[in-house]
Amino acid sequence: MSSVPPPDDFERRLIIATQAGLPLVPRPYDALAEQLGVDAERVKAQLAAMLQGGRIRRIGAVPNHYALGYTANGMSVWDVDDARIGELGEAVGRFDFVTHCYERPRALPDWPYNLFAMVHGHDRNTVLAHVEEIATLLGAACRARDVLFSSAILKKTGLRIGGDG
Amino acid sequence: MNAPASAPSRRPPPAVLDELDRRIINALQGGFPISDEPYREIAAQLGTTEADLLARLQRLLDQRVLTRFGPMFQIERLGGRFVLAALAVPEERFDEVAAAVNALPEVAHNYRREHHLNMWFVLATETPDGIAAATARIEAATGLPVFAFPKLREFFVDMRLKA
After folding, report:
1. pTM for the whole thing?
2. Which domain holds residue A36?
3. Cβ atoms within 10 A of the Cβ of B42, count?
4. A146 — contact with chain B (CB < 8 Å)?
5. Cβ neighbours of residue A19 under 8 Å, at least 6 residues apart?
6. Domain count, chain A
7. Do residues B109 and A156 make contact, with C-beta atoms less than 8 angstroms apart?
8. Using CA atoms, how far apart are residues A67 and A60, in angstroms rounded to an integer?
9. Is there a contact between B29 and A158 if contact means CB atoms under 8 Å apart?
């Protein structure tokens, strides 16, 4: 990942112009084009290329999960056999209640877990039931596990590129 | 349109949404068109007008039912870096340490979690070497060791949730 080139100047200006959100006007790409001093075709082509290349995951809405009633948020963590984590991580990521699933390094002796799967639910019991489904899937390949419920959001801003640009 | 950075623990109550609000939220978590009048297209699919869709989107953002509406950047493909990190904060220092950690612009999210490692945050920087600098500043400001958990492999990421 360290070899990824930084965005070029136009791409960077487009990111800064849209990171707070897409304009809520009937012709949002025209509005961006006017702001950036280019034509709308260039804005649309650049966004399409970024989607195609995976530099934009998607264009859309990010819901606040609390506002939608998903008040329980458990970070489930698992100590999974290194020989099987690739296959099992993919399988855990396919559960529809898992929103993020990553392999991360252990920090021994404090932290034996190498698989992280975020589980959202309408209450804690729902989350715990989902965690049991993951445990069943992992079976004997899992040596230890925990689930860390969030009890407060301390900050949530997302990445900001270019200072206050 | 993102939430303000410095306010402490805020958990909005579940919002009062009508049926069309829910269909809008569910529909807009998919791919939004890159076309001249994308809101008009989506409004037609949902059986409403462009003006109504735009007004509802603005309200959902104002009420923080939506935290954002726009492109979601994959920052690692743009040369940047995200790292999950944690601290074991003594309970009596929790608020002070939260303020010190949140003061860094590199801290994108921060959650209190029920564990010995009780503060979990995401560092997001435009370049990979920004992470080490941010970690060092947090350790200097708090006197606590930062446990960093950079991702080794991403199996799945999709924050879509059904409204």
Report:
1. 0.82
2. 9-52
3. 19
4. yes
5. A158, A159, A160, A161, B70, B71, B73
6. 2
7. yes
8. 17
9. no
